[in-house]
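Bug: token stream looks shifted between consecutive jobs. Job 1:
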Amino acid sequence: MRNYIYYLLLLVLSLSCTSNKRKIDKNTQLGKLAYTNVNGTNLKNDSTIWGMKVDLVTDNRLIIQELSNELLYGVYRVEGEKLIKEGGFLTKGVGPFEMIHPDLWGNEGDSVFYISNYSGMVKEIYTVKKTDIYNKEKWKIIKFPDPQECLFYPSIAILDDSIYIVSGSKLNSINILSRVNLQTGSISDLDFPFPGFNLPSGFKIVEHMIYCDAQLLKHPRQNKLLYVCRLGKYAKILEMENGQIGKQIPLYSILPQYEAVNNERKIKDDCLGGIIAKVTADKIYCLVLPYTRKEENENPFYKGMPNYFADEMVIFDWDGNLINAYRLDQPICNFGVDGTKNILYGTTLDGEEFVVRRFVLK
């Protein structure tokens, strides 16, 4: 237990910081794709936007995480060329219906979305009807089981009312993901190991820091998951069968480059910067960050924007087919997608102001 608590604290510190069903190999990834250029237009804000992470696009509204504001989420309505602030929700704090480190996810066609609070572990998840955003007394609270010395990251995919898939596992596990049964409280590994050769013994704290710090996104209607590591260019579609991982379809296969130094991760200079992904029922959208770790340290800007902005958007379907690759006319920090209209809403800068830039994808 003492070792578990030590590594839990270490983990919390680390957090602060083609058309033929093929994967994209290193040569293709680094510049041989045929890009379609797409121009965007900035929506005119009627008020200040306090964040750049678009967590959900639904019913012509954008839910944007605004951690620097009193309310942690802002709801913005798109009206023509304007972005109208409709309201905000979720108070910052440690009391009932309050959070410090929220994570919100959902699908544009569903009636609900979910919010978890992460402070080294997940204790509860809120289920929020979209009609009750501003009425927190109607939010449903789901108690999360005791982690049983597992280290879980705030990335959760809900298969059904009782089975959740979570990024993380026990420290001596060789697997990236776990299966959590809310009804029984049981937790079991999924057969999805860290890449490379791993002996099933000893603590694997650095591997957890690298591979469990990931996005885990579920297909809105099917039992398919998208796993995206936040470092390197490593992403896979995972097809779930009877609660276990069946077929795996690689999209990107460039592993993170790192080394373990005294149970701490050291990112190598040639490590690629990762992917930000969003999904709809038909497509997977990948915003590919441009720099290696060395290039990031040497270049504070990318095309006039901060070096964590990007302009390469690659789109797949859920069978792993490459649909298109776009070059945005201005780098963006984060984005959301209106799948019904094939519109991408990217957050970027106009001078020193946060703005939402709309791209109509061809």
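Job 2, same session, no restart:
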Amino acid sequence: MPNGGGYGGELVLHRYLDQDPMIEHEIFRKTKFPLRLKIIGKLRQLGFKWLGGVLECFWPVYPDPKDIDQRLLSFKPDLILTVAHAWWHLAAVKAACRNDLPLVTFFQDWWPDFNDVPKICRGPVERIFMRTAMLSDKVICISQGMIRQLGNLPNACHIHDLPSQVSVVPRSHQFDSKNERPLKLVYFGNLGEYGPMMEAALKLFEERSDIELHVFGPKPHWPSDVIDHYRNTERYHGSLPPDEMNTKISEFDAILVTMSFNESLKKRMRTSFPSKLIEGVQHGLPIIVWGPSYCSAVDWARSGDRAMTVTEPSAGALVEAIENTYSNGSFDLSSYAKGSREAAAEEFNPDEIRNQFRAELFDVLKREE
């Protein structure tokens, strides 16, 4: 659902749809909660989260087909757009078939491997996920890795997440001991899966006076005393709305982007692509990618040496990589700042990404004529 104040897919859909005057759209929202959703919710409330998850996988909750068809009859769309996450994409596939409408589906993450899907259910859920891709007229993938994982389908294309447009003030990104100002790194984003990585990094950087790490994001996966500590030391700043965060980023010198080293998440790390990386390069700041060698962000960074990469899971490796840029009395990240500016002007250019999205929609409609 498009949401200008949201994060991830919600924010990207807002930019694609709500901010484009050439696209008229209507969102189908849930109007009532079926009995099975109440049962699943009650199981989770009583502490049976796993059982509730299994029940939902084999008894998915999505809207009544009559409600969907009534909305389609009223709005008369040219196509149906959905996101292959959770269960509503199943309803979109069926609605497109019933109403003879083309279907465009975003594949932004490998949903079957999410924690919401119990491991015992991941095989069947993945087959359903793949079936949506095969039945879609156009599959919009967030990464080349997603295209490969879906089997290089002929209906698949690669379009990056649409970032915000910002005004960049050129900066040198060199820091020396004479100005007595530390290098200020910023991380903004998911602190659930990436919470432990950020906690480990904060502990090491806390011991230094020449480098600071500042963290933004909702609900960090940390003990309450750790949250209090980093709030009090002004290193954890909570979560800000996207527009405010964009303004805040200009106060920092480099952006830290993470991807998980957890082996069980390998498929997700290969298929997803961090929207905060695309967002970060718009500011012309150096990007530091901390993640496994097989992840999509490291692949991108290494093609053209556009960002620093740290492919060891220890926070010490991150510190050491930054220390290695220290030469002649300064941290020099200028080559990575140049890589960000080039990426923002080329493959992550918001206007080009929007035009590519429009072109793919028009291609679908043209083939339906």
